[in-house]
Amino acid sequence: MQQLVVLANQHLQDLAPRYALQPVPGSPLALQVIDHDMGDEVRSVESVGR
Question: What's a Gene Ontology MF term here (predicted)?
Answer without folding.
Answer: exonuclease activity
